[in-house]
From TrEMBL:
Signal is among the record's keywords: yes
PROSITE patterns linked to this entry: PROKAR_LIPOPROTEIN
The species this protein was found in: Candidatus Wirthbacteria bacterium CG2_30_54_11
Superkingdom of the organism of origin: Bacteria
Sequence ranges assigned to domain Transcobalamin-like C-terminal in this UniProt record: 60-134
A Pfam family per the record: DUF4430
The protein, known as: Transcobalamin-like C-terminal domain-containing protein
Signal peptide residue numbers: 1-18
Keyword Signal: yes
Amino acid sequence: MKKLGIFYLCAVVLFASACSVFPSKNTDAGLPSVTTTAVNVTISYAEDNSSTVPVIVDKGASAFDALQKLTTDNSMPLDFNQSDFGVMINGINGVMSDNVEGKYWLWYVNGSMGSTACDQYVVEEGDAIEFEYGAGF
């Protein structure tokens, strides 16, 4: 009887140590993580000449990244300068800023003028990003 008790004790110890060597399965394994963000990008050349396009960018992308993706995917030239303050858009699809007429590319997020350079704003799911050609501030 004593031998049988020792056998059961050894079996329990072996089972317990095997469970600690093989961790339990993660129930989240296999679920895709969200790595992209969907936004709508509008390019407005004038009140009656604008288009809005849904754009999918990597999570953590900027408004400028979304604009670059849109222009690249649609073979539209994009002219910009990088400065210490951030990216300044000079032209989209051949429409260039005009210092004489005081028209520039301004950008908005969800209807409000961007408070930073467009490359410094991280887009969020569903954001409405607009690049508008018009009179400056």
